[in-house]
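new request in #modeling-help
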Amino acid sequence: MALVGYTSVSTAEEVSKEQIKGLDEQVQDIKKDVLGISTELNLLEEKLLYPSNTQVSLFVSVAAGDDFRLDSVEIELDGKAVAHHIYSFKELEALHAGGMQRIYTGNVRSGAHQLTVGFAGKTAQGSEYSKTETYTFNKDVAPGLVEIGLAGPGFRTQSIEFKDW
Amino acid sequence: MRSKLLCLIVILVATKSVVASESTPAQLKDPYFGEALYYAHQDEYFDAIARLDTELRQYHGVDEPQLDTLHFHINEAEFSVGDLELSYRMHRRAGRAIKAVIEGNVAPAVRNEAIFRLARIYFQKEQNVNALHTIERIEGELPEEIVNDVAFLKGQIYMVNGRFSDAEKIFVSLEGEDSHEGFSSYNLGISQYAQGKEEEGALSLAKAGQIKGGGRAFQAIKDKSNLVLGSKLLDQGKLEQAGRYFDRVRLDGPFSNRALLGMGWADVKRDLYDRALVPWNILVKRNITDSSVQEVLLGVPFVYGKLGLYGRSALMYGSALNAMASELDKLDTSIKSINEGKFLKALVREEIKKDKGWVIKLRELDETPETYYLMILMASHDFQASLQNYIDLEELRKRLGAWAEYYDSYEEIISIRRAYYEPLLPIIDAKFRKLDSKIRLRLEQRDKLDSRLKSMLVAPRPEFLATAEERIARAKIAQIEKKLGKALLLSDPSTQHRINRLKGHFLWNIHTKYDERQTEAFKHLADLDKDIKRLKEINGSFVRTRQAATQSYQGYDKPIARLRIKTRNAQAKVKVLMARQGHMLEVMAVNELVKRRQKLEQAQVKARFAMADSYDRATAKEKQSSVPQPQSKLNDEENIQLDEAPKSDETPEPTASPGQDG
């Protein structure tokens, strides 16, 4: 009986379309506010933690149309491990759809730096495939942006392609 | 409710594909834009918008934006923000952003695309008249890739504004277009039915129900078309045909329960009771939270009664009563659990949300009665939107909480940097000033040499290029001349001659080697310039490092203080909104469950009467079998009124295609 009483109290309240709409608009407003904070914070972090004269960012992309299943990526910068990532299905889908993953952001001195990238995964036929390549990039006054393009065996001449942006 | 559920499922599928298809440029020229897409393709809209907003802010803040790599994607980026905001359910801001594009100085194709997007927002927000006025503003050139999308949307907008004849023309023109295949035919059929063109409508729906192609969206529209057509034919009394279309609905799809129910009804209405038992016996074993399943709980014993199997019918009514009682218990437990606040906690369980089928998973957890009926609640658009808002608010709450802690860390970093740099910098500055003055002096000397050499190209001055030895020797000769005096030299012609010969020798060398020496001098200047360049680089690097040292701890106090206040205010707002949104969800959930409870209670009463009736008839039959009597009318249908057979949609609703945002 107590339960029935409890229930009847709850059902006395109705939710109108106006209430739903009003609250939805308030939620939209707070999203806008928080996005604004996020943008300001991004800019502050970039200035405070990764100033452009020392900033280096590494991006991972996969070759469009390649059915290679990327499992993991490991990156060393000047001999020091800086990033290791294991890919979820969603992340891999996002990469295949043309997205680029910023896998590392850090600070380095200006001058030449060595990047060692290793990746592992499975081909469409199910065989294991892994590859490691080294690349030297030059860091100058502007932020250093390096794209690491990955592809399965035989898809193109280089399984790992580097691009200085 | 059913039609909403149908629409919702298709729209949900459609929403996912829109970002993927519209936001990926042919070739990426800005890695940060690519990063925003990376998040967008994972449905992480907050991160995607935040990244893009940051990039756009930087782009618009630089002196020469045309040099920024985002310049290549600027139109896409502006549009993408609108799209992402739409996906993040920020319709108002998305609408404003798109309006800004429309009112800006843009090419007609870009403007028309923006109008299309704005119309789509109005359509999604059910502002049908605004959507109509907006889409009709499109004039002239359209980007080729959205021509069909614009037409499809226009057709949908005509439908929701009751202009079915105009909608029909559009959908006819879209037939055969791959991107909208099935969806156009479906909407065409609905438009035709709405105009009373039943035969044409049936043909169109039948066509939509037979499209070829994989993908969940296509399968769903196929099933939906067959279900709607079957329901319409059932209403019209074309029972055999209705059964055929219900039969085409996949048995494992989201519309299968309604189809099985309809299939049974098509048989029952033709008095083919034994045939009706086939789909209904499948349906009755399915999840009892579904209203179709609850309906056949009474339907199956009703059919057994019709077949004269009263004993079995009575037993099955008994089982149905048990199932209903158990279901009522579940409903009560669910309502109680929701009222205790457990529902909201379950909805934001982190481990559940990582799974795509989290709604189903949540329902299947034994320990969460509060979410047992979540699938049913999710069928309501209002509930779903409110739930999504609640989940979004929870994410905002977590982000804001994390950021609030960041500020303390940042301040600590800044204070460590200040403590390190502040004592060092005055000493370094003093040393640098000394060094800098020396550098300036050397630079001035170099400039003097440069200008002198350049002027010598116009007016040759060989003496300027005399070697140090030559200069010393010439100075010595001049000294000797001075010492001897003019008078003595005049009296001693041989000495004068020797001096002249020496002077001539040097003069000869200076003049004859002038060109060679000038070339050498320019070479040396070039070498000097290399050193100067290196010196300037070192100097510049030092100045930048020096500036960076200051910038690493100066000028952050105000921004951090401002951000901290903003974060705190946002946290307070989120807290209030979460409470309101949560309460609204609880009320909506409880209201729905209570309605369900009432419905079940009514069904329970019917079942009790039907069971009693079946027992009576079973007993009567037993007696009749011992004393032969004329056959009486068995199992009065009036006594058992089941809820209802599936009805076709009374209000036509257009269906979104896979390329169309919901």
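bot summary: The longest helix of chain A spans residues 17-49.
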